Amino acid sequence: MLKAGDRAPGFSNPDADMALVELPQFRGKFLVLFFYVRDDTPGCTAEAIEFSELENDFAKLGATVLGVSRDDCIRHGEFRDKHGISVRLLADKEHATSEAYGVLQDKEVDGVMRRSAVRATFIIDKQGIIRHALYGVSSRGHAAEVLQLVALMNKGELN
Question: How many other C-beta atoms lie within 10 A of the C-beta of residue 103?
Answer without folding.
Answer: 29
